[in-house]
Queue: 3 jobs
Job 1
Amino acid sequence: MRDTFQAYATSAKGGLLERLEFDPGPLGGEQVEVAVETCGICHSDLSMIDNEWGMASYPLVPGHEAIGCVVAAGDRVKGLSLGQRVGVGWFSGSCMACPQCLAGNHNLCPNGEQTIVARHGGFADRVRCHWAWATPLPEGLDARAAGPLFCGGITVFAPILDCGVRPTDRVGVIGIGGLGHMAVQFLNKWGCEVTAFTSSDSKYDEATRMGAHKVINSRDPAQWKEIAGSLDFILCTVNVALPWDAIMGSLAPGGRLHLVGAVLDPIPVSAFALIGARKALSGSPLGSPSQVATMLDFSARHSIAPIIETFPMSRVNDALDHLRAGKARYRLVLEADF
């Protein structure tokens, strides 16, 4: 355990990240300290850097897809040992006592601690979290590429469990980017018939290689009409306005549109679009610790991994510019080089 941590932080909204040394304070009795090896970059990091959600505080150390080994543990830590390789995602703690936590839905805890909100995250040589949110990596999982599973991966995997998606279902994934490219892989291995929706014809072959059985251009009304009433479940991973009437029309009776992309504008869906064929509209945050562990085991069993590009952490600003420019294919991972 070290007295000070090294990190990359921005001191103002939208600013460049610069080296920061800070005192993390005493290690909590239920906390572990993780020596960061890699940390993924998520669009949520950009949102926090730019304070798009109004909850950033500066200096801000982003990073909530950290992989590394446990180097220190409080005296009340359970189930983890020094030297064990773990991942830390968006959540770094929960109260463990509310009805949500006691029911296993720690990700819905009203007092949950978020790794980069009012505390320092994983663009650092060390990061801390409650032991329940440090999930061991199973054998066979590529540790170098595993970081994005702890945010983007669980964001799209948890709805498969929560919404009761069946292997016999016909499903759609809107947006073949950082989230969607993992959703296509998960749903294919889950046994579903997968339709990928993308606004870019250039992603047709890539989506097919990821496991999509069909690829639809989301800007072509004729292609929406061809699949009307056919899909049992649609997972929307993008954060922009879409042809919502066409999307709802593509659902089969009893179908569900589920949102994990933070669409900022209201979604104009009429009650009749839901009532007549018992359709549903829903959304979710990330998953619980047990869901994260299930996702990691599933990924190791089926050789599922994010497609990544890597940067040394010392080039974090270059990596962020790469993401801002929309050039990431499909997740970016920083390798610690302090």
Job 2
Amino acid sequence: MFDFTTRVVPYLTPSEREEVVSLLSSSDLAFDEGADAVALVEDTGGAVAATASLFGSVIRMVAVSASCRESGLSAVAISALMEAARVGGVSRLFLYAKPDKAARFASLGFRNLAESGSAALLETGEPGVGVYRKYLFEKRAAPDEATGGAPGKIGAIVANCNPFTLGHRYLVERASSACRRLYVIVVEENRSLFSFEDRYAMVEAGLSGFGNATLLRSGSYAVSDVTFPTYFLKDRSELAVASEQARLDLSLFCRLYAPALGINARFVGTEPDSAVTRAYNEAMKDVLPAEGIEVVEVERLPAPDGAPISASAARRMMSSGDISKLSSYLPPSTIEYMREKSLL
């Protein structure tokens, strides 16, 4: 635009940071450190009139000064980041926006994936949600193959499985027996102790014997840095933020997974320890039934000492070198895989 200049910078100077924080605050948005790039749209006096930040493949912290909100400067800032991402080899981008502002970014190629009360998640570029939806349709069991427990019930479990425990297997067992077909969706985000490839392989081995269970990868569309970043930042998350992001993640589940796979039930374990995961479970109970999806919460399987079996407890044992009780937490298939891969 003629009266403004646009810069994309890898970091902010102290004065730029102060301006960006103030601009975000005026739009009821919080500032987060760690952006890979920040777009600054400045007026003729050098004041920041609009900004947007790129975190990996996610554009967020988009704000425009009150006097310029009808001038299209948010699109200018986002376009600058899109070009910087393209030059850097990033072909697919996600964008957080206010729900009432989401439609204006269609001209930039963004499609609306999901909405919560205060945020919309948009996507542009390839491989996009259409490619992943095709993957889900290809994995969907044919009617004559979906023969498990209860007629008509198609269930889903979404889990990180870091690593796959006896608790996970117990949840699968309960869900499998209650469903005609069960989809086990493994979180693909690589922010865990074990890589996605290892976690997926451990789950695959652990599902042996469950003839009505289908294993799926999540892509970027379930409990990922894109849809639910506080899941991986439990030590600094605020429950209100976690709850809202859970609703965004669940909105995407309802729009994408449920129709593509025919899911009408979601199974989850109780959460005695993590407040963030508990907030997700509560959001699930609030959001999914209204969309025709039953929420089935299964009590955690206890270890011999009475403590609930969890992946975090198993990781603590491994970290401390005290692996004598691991067989009470992990199925033989997980232990065998870890030993084969020198992970244990």
Job 3
Amino acid sequence: MNLPNKLTILRVCMIPFFVAALLWDEGDSQTMRVIADVIFIAASLTDMLDGKIARKYNLVTNFGKFMDPLADKLLVCSALICLIELEQLPAWVVIIIISREFIISGFRLVASDNGVVIAASYWGKFKTVFQMAAVILLILDLDVLELVSEIVLGIAVILTVVSLVDYIVKNHKVLTEGSM
């Protein structure tokens, strides 16, 4: 259990605290939203940090390859689902984002059965940054940032679709030929 894997586990453990803070509806809800945002930002930073440490110090493990993307999906999907509950996000946006994650996970599963690793693309990385930024802004729920939140969310949705198309185009042989 190396440091990057511990950071990944920490990210997963932070999710229930994040959700509880975000959905807290007693007392000062704005304070709880700030707490939720801080937890989400900290969890997001562990995502960036664990990968950098693993690559820099050659600490890449099968556990990390499996859990890191799963932890990311759990964090972002938890946030998006909570934002539907809070009526700040339309369900269709979340459906697009979660559908993309299922499709890419399926592609990766089929590819790995054929001994092929599908690495994260730059489009996917940009998508993640914009999704996380949109979540951070939406959690704050400040009127002064409403337009910025909508623009960042729109870019996140566009990048979600673009990154899906990019994966399909670059890796279509995984499904059509059984190998790349």
